[in-house]
Structures are given as C-alpha cells and as structure tokens.
C-alpha cells in the first residue's frame, strides 16, 4: 500500500490492530475509502505476524449480498496477495460458479472464499461440512447495511451463530456504510463476542447535490411527465462526464429512460447500456466490465448497481425521480468520484415539479447526517425451519445442543422452549396438519437424539429451493430463432396477446407465443408496452418524510439560498392562494368539488404504503358517519377519497375521523387483514418448505403457488390457528405492509397538529398529481396525456413562470 504511495487511513490501522488482538467488530466508512482493505489486509497482516496460528485451508470467508460484487472483489484481493508475494488463492462460490470448481473446492478449499448468504447455507447443507471450516479464522460480512432488516440478514445471523458455536475463536467483522442504528447493527451481527469494537472512519464523503431544473414550473404537476422533457437536459451532463450512472427506482423506468436518452441523442447508440436484474446475467457482466474499463459513456440502472463494484471511470451520477430514502441517495451518490477525497456529484432529475422540494429535503438530511435506521427482523420462523433442515442435511444436530445456539442470535433471542419444540415438531412431523402427509416429514430423529435428513428426494428439493428471495414467477424471454434476452414477471405477460409489443433490455419485442414458462418473441419496432415489475415500488422513508414536511412549510418564505424552493415559488403561491401550505404543526385537508364529483384530499407526507392504509381507514370511519362509498388514489405526499355523493363532514367530525383512538382495531376492520396475511403466507410457505417453488429445475407458476399456499392457509386458520407460520404472516402484515409503528406515529403527530380544512373549486398543485395517479390506472398513456391537458385547462387559469 505504502509502496504505491498510499497512506492507510486511521480507521484501517485501528482495524488491523484490533483484529490482531483477537477482536471482532464492525467498520463504518464512506464508499471509496477502502473499507474492504481494512478487514482483508488485517487477516494478511495477522498471518504474516503469526503464521503458526494459520493452517492450510480456508482462512477467510467473505459474505457479500451480490454476486456481481464477488468477482471484482476476488480479483482485487488476488492482485494484492500476488503483490505481497503470498501463495494464497482467492475464489468465488455462488450460483454462477462452474460445477467442476465447486467440486474441487469441496475437496480442497481456497485460502479466501467469497460467497452469498445462500451459497454459505448450501455449504452448511453438505455432508462433511466440518472439514470446510476447520481452519477458518475470520468471517467478513460485506455491505451489512444491505442485509440487515431482511430475511437474508437472518440467514447470515443463523450461519454465523452456528459456525461461532463450532469454532469458538472465530473472529467476525462487518463492513457497512452509515445507517441510523449502528450500535444495534453491530449487536445483531456479533451478539455474543466478548471482545468487539465499532470503528467509524472520521473521513466524510463530500457530496454535491445538483438539481436539474425544468425550463418552467408546472403549477399543476404530474408524476412521470417531466422525465421525458428533461432527457434533453441530461444529455449534456453525460457528454461532459467521463462516465455516468443514471439511476432509476424501477426496472420499467430504466427501460423508459434508456429509450428517452437514445431518442434525445441518437449518437448514444453503442455508447450507453441498460442494467437491471431481469436482464440476462451475461449481458450484465459485459456491461459491468465495459463500465470498469471506461468503454461506456453511461449506464441506465436500477438498484442492481447500488452496491460495491468500484467503477473508477464513473465521475457522475444522475438520480431520476425520488430516491425515497436518504441512505439510498447517499449510497448512489458515492458511486461517483470513487477515490477518497474526490467529490461525488449527483444530479437530481425531478419527474414532476414537486419533487424539487425533495432536493432541498435531501440536502438538509445529508448536511445533518440524518440517516434511516435498518430495523432488524426477529422471530422469522420460516427462515429458522429452513435452516434446521439445512443443518440436519449436512450431518445432523441434537435439538438440546442447538437450542442455546439459536437463542444466542439476535433474531431469536426471544424464542421460547415451546416455540423451539414446535419448530422441531414441524420439521419432523410437518406440524399439526402435516402428520398424515409423508412429504412434510423431512427430518428423521435417530436413537441417539440426532436429527438428520435421510430421504434423497427431500435433500435434493431442499437444496434446489434454499434461500429467502421469493420472486413472483418469472418468465424467460427468448427469440424464436434462439437467444435469451431476460426475464419478466408472469403476470405482465399474461396480460398481453400474441402480436403485442413490449420493451425489454432496451429492445422492442413482439410476442409470438407463450409455452410453459417461456415467452417467444421476435425483434420489432414502434410503440410498445413497458413491463411493470411488481417489486418496483419503494416506500418513502420516515426521515425523508419529516424533511419534506419541514421544507414545504418553509417554502412559503423561501430562503434565498434554497434555489429549489425559490424556483417553485409560483406553485407554492398558487397552492396558498387557492388552499393552504401547511406549517410543520398543521395538517391539511382539502375538499374539492368538480363536475366529476366530490374529492377529499389529505396530506400526511408519509409515503404511498402508509397512505394506502390511511385512506382505507379514513374511508371506513367516514362510512360509519354517513352511508357513502369511495374510490381511492395516493402518492408519496397524500391520498384522495373520491365519491359521486357529497362528502358532507364538518370540522368536529373531521377531528373524530383523524383520531388516534382505537387505531389498529379500526385498521383491521377497514382492510382485509386476512387476505393480506394470505398473500404474505405464500412467501412464508415457500421459504419454510411447505410449498415447493422449484421442482426438478422447473419453476411453478404463480397460480399454482398461490393456490397451494392458499389452501394450506385456510386449513391452518381452521384447524391450527396457533401455527407459528400463520402467526408470522399476520405479524409481517402489521410490521411491514401496514407499518404499524409508523402509522401510530403519524396519527400521534396529526393529533398534536392543527387541522386546516379548506374548500376549493378546482385541483390544487398538491392534489393534482394524486388525481393523475388515479386516472393512470384506467387510461392508456395517450388518453391520459390528453385527459390531463383538458384537466389543466379547465382548472384555474394562471400564468406559467419561465426560468
């Protein structure tokens, strides 16, 4: 390092020292400051100082959340080892690794092995797993903030707990970017270590947030509309940079922006590429290599490129639309200017005018380092029973020995003996309803108390279905003439007819036919559908919500330094003139009567997911006061209840409707919690092995998965209501889908706010984008544009402000 003229950072030196003194710990540092080398070199330095501690075999196990990270990391590690002159070998083991390499690794492990959480569990499921880890000194968990708060994070916790129990001197180190709850993050990763340390880099990444302003303020903004216009403004940014990453939030948005940029600047053909998780892995690999080598001018990507790989030539990042969270925004910003002390430039492209308030909010959050927590998941019994079958498969375990190991993990510290006994009963007998079905008797108890998997078919199916990522059934997309393009969700293809055109991997394709789980297509041109992937919608974080409310309130008297709020002044003035801009201690409700009917708008600024629940609850409460039915629409800023009957409520009734009293009881009455739990149960059933997703290399389609899990759900509701997996489905609905803690906090805030109830005769700047979202559900894009223009013209006439 020093030979190359590089001086180590103090956090790296501290990590090397603590590691050699037997500590486990967690390193927190910005992107591009050498977090990887803080742990990797610690192991090399310790080996060179104490070679007698180390034996031939696996010394360092490196867990990474993404396959694409592993290849680049392994290359960088091997280069460093070769330069030092050690004979260590670094290898990767994941779903892309050749079977011959895996077989060789099983006989003789390399010195350093990079794995995903799933690959590690597959190793634990191998007979004779003991000899893989006998010489292991350290496990490093990379990008821990990405795994924390997910079921993949729980997989890591369980694997670490098991390996630590078998190898008492094992050191565990996490590497993470900044999150709000760093102490808890370390506690989850290393709950039992006697000697542990959190090392936080003093160095901070400098981030320049540059908004891309439209040529004029649209005082009646609508989502998605500005994107097309602003592609022209993004072209010069790309041309002036060495290499640019253009981040979108969804795969469909990335497909759209790839086309927009090519239309705006046809010379980009061959110079820009498209990267998301539904594109064929070989194409993605080529793009990553071309980006690293500086052969691409720009890549339009989703979160598939959020993490890790050091793309040195990237000097600019463009974020299209809301990033929905502060941590995600900072992570993406850090992908540019990857060297220490280099400025990270990120351009924010609003998809509608109101998103410029978000730029001001993000600047404030970055300045004050207010970053979201990643709340850990607990008592995920589906992951636990899968893990127990894995351990039973790789040589077996005794229930009494493994119980304290599981209880020592953060995720299962609250597990009771009764719950543990239920888990053992479930894997051996299939629970109360599985007793009569042979396929649920996965694990066999032996006379000596060992629990093992004996049946070959169960072993094979378990290995094929291991993991916790349950995607909606994906269809392969192939050319009739041969050649694989990528994947789209089954539900999207099911809505198309033969001859319909759609866009994938930047190409216009015509659907010819669907056979089994493959869509056959040919190249085409012209107008086409953009696939919408169900997993695409990100929730707005509570931190960003808070700053948004703050900035909107201050927009009435914009600070001269906040260009975004100054630019939005005509929109803010229009909102104030016809309704109101809520202060931080106010809650705005608008009642608007148009020739279409009656609209009630509310603006909690809590994100689409929370608003979905709030809208159902408010509609339910109003229906208890007056007989009325509603349709609903929402965005990240607020929601609309629409009816063709008058919504006749006064201020005292409004207070009652917005009350925090009996909140969760009435939420349950207002939504179909059972139906939501049933949908959640599908994933739980797949993870726990009650329903098999992959059968002999073929993936079951959505309908059969949903039907199988639906039948089991109904049987459990009726005959085994205390089933832990059923209980978990309801818990996940409340904690994840209904976001119960955040919902309660929102109503608490509204309770302490002054309610401002305004009547308007036309759509306001805050209500208009929500109205457009409701139209989007029922109209094609061409009809939608003309309908919106008519709405804008029929609303209040007012001058537009030019920049």
UniProtKB/TrEMBL annotation:
GO terms for molecular function: ligase activity. Keywords: ATP-binding, DNA damage, DNA repair, DNA-binding, Helicase, Hydrolase, Isomerase, Ligase, Nucleotide-binding. SUPFAM superfamilies: P-loop containing nucleoside triphosphate hydrolases. Residues 233-385 form the Helicase C-terminal domain. Residues 16-197 form the Helicase ATP-binding domain. The keyword Transcription does not apply. InterPro entries: ATP-dep_Helicase, DEAD/DEAH_box_helicase_dom, DEXH_lig_assoc, Helicase_ATP-bd, Helicase_C-like, Lhr-like, Lhr-like_DEAD/DEAH_assoc, Lhr_WH_dom. The keyword Isomerase applies. Belongs to the Lhr helicase family. Lhr-Core subfamily. This is Ligase-associated DNA damage response DEXH box helicase. It comes from Sphingobacterium chuzhouense.
């Amino acid at each position: 390092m020093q030979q190359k003229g590089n001086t180590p950072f103090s956090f790296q030196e501290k990590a090397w020292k603590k590691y050699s003194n037997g500590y486990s710990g967690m390193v927190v540092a910005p992107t591009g400051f050498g977090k990887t080398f803080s742990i990797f070199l610690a192991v090399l330095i310790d080996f060179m100082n104490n070679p007698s501690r180390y034996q031939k075999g696996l010394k360092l196990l490196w867990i990474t959340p993404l396959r694409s990270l592993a290849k680049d990391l392994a290359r960088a590690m091997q280069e460093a080892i070769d330069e030092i002159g050690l004979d260590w070998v670094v290898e990767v083991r994941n779903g892309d690794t050749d079977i011959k390499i895996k077989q060789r690794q099983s006989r003789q492990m390399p010195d350093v092995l990079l794995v995903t959480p799933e690959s590690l569990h597959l190793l634990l499921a191998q007979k004779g797993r003991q000899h893989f880890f006998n010489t292991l000194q350290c496990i490093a968990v990379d990008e821990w903030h990405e795994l924390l708060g997910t079921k993949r994070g729980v997989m890591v916790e369980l694997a670490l707990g098991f390996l630590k129990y078998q190898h008492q001197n094992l050191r565990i180190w996490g590497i993470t970017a900044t999150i709000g709850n760093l102490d808890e993050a370390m506690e989850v990763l290393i709950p039992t270590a006697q000697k542990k340390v959190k090392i936080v880099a003093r160095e901070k990444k400098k981030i320049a947030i540059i908004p891309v302003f439209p040529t004029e303020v649209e005082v009646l903004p609508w989502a998605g509309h500005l994107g097309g216009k602003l592609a022209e403004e993004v072209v010069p940014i790309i041309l002036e940079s060495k290499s640019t990453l253009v981040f979108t939030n969804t795969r469909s948005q990335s497909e759209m922006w790839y086309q927009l940029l090519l239309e705006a600047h046809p010379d980009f053909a061959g110079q820009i590429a498209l990267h998301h998780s539904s594109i064929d892995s070989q194409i993605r690999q080529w793009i990553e290599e071309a980006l690293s080598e500086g052969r691409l001018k720009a890549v339009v990507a989703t979160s598939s490129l959020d993490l890790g790989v050091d793309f040195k030539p990237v000097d600019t990042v463009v974020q299209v639309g809301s990033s929905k969270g502060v941590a995600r925004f900072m992570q993406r910003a850090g992908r540019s200017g990857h060297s220490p002390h280099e400025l990270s430039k990120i351009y924010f492209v609003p998809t509608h005018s109101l998103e410029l308030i978000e730029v001001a909010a993000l600047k404030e959050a970055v300045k004050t380092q207010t970053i979201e927590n990643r709340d850990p998941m607990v008592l995920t019994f589906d992951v636990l029973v899968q893990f127990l079958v894995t351990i039973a498969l790789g040589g077996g375990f005794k229930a009494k020995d493994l119980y304290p190991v599981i209880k020592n993990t953060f995720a299962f510290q609250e597990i009771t003996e009764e719950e543990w006994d239920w888990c053992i009963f479930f894997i051996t007998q299939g629970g109360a309803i599985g007793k009569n079905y042979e396929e649920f008797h996965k694990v066999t108890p032996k006379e000596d108390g060992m629990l093992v998997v004996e049946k070959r078919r169960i072993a094979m199916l378990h290995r094929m279905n291991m993991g916790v990522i349950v995607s909606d059934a994906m269809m392969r997309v192939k050319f009739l003439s041969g050649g694989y393009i990528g994947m789209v969700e089954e539900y999207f293809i099911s809505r198309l007819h033969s001859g319909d055109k759609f866009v994938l991997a930047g190409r216009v394709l015509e659907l010819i036919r669907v056979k089994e789980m493959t869509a056959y297509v040919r190249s085409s041109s012209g107008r086409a559908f953009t696939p919408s992937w169900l997993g695409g919608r990100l929730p707005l974080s509570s931190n960003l919500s808070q700053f948004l409310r703050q900035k909107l309130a201050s927009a009435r008297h914009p600070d001269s330094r906040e260009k975004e709020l100054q630019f939005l002044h005509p929109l803010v003035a229009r909102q104030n003139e016809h309704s109101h801009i809520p202060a931080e201690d106010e809650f705005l409700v608008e009642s608007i009567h148009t020739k279409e009917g009656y609209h009630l708008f509310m603006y909690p600024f809590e994100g689409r997911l929370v608003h979905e629940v709030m809208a159902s609850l408010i509609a339910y409460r109003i229906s208890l006061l007056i007989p009325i039915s509603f349709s609903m629409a929402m965005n990240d800023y607020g929601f609309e209840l629409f009816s063709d009957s008058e919504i006749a409520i006064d201020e005292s009734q409004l207070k009652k409707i917005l009350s925090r009293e009996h909140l969760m009881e009435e939420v349950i009455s207002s939504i179909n919690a059972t139906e939501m739990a049933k949908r959640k149960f599908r994933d739980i059933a797949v993870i726990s092995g009650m329903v098999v997703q992959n059968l002999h290399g073929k993936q079951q389609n959505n309908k059969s998965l949903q039907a199988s899990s639906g039948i089991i759900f109904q049987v459990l509701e009726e005959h085994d209501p205390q089933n832990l997996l059923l209980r978990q489905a309801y818990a996940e609905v409340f904690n994840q889908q209904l976001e119960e803690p955040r919902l309660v906090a929102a109503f608490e805030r509204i309770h302490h706010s002054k309610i401002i109830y305004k009547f308007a005769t036309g759509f306001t700047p805050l209500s208009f984008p929500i109205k457009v979202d409701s139209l989007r559900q029922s109209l094609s894009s061409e009809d939608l544009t003309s309908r919106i223009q008519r709405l804008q013209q029929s609303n209040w006439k007012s001058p537009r402000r030019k920049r």
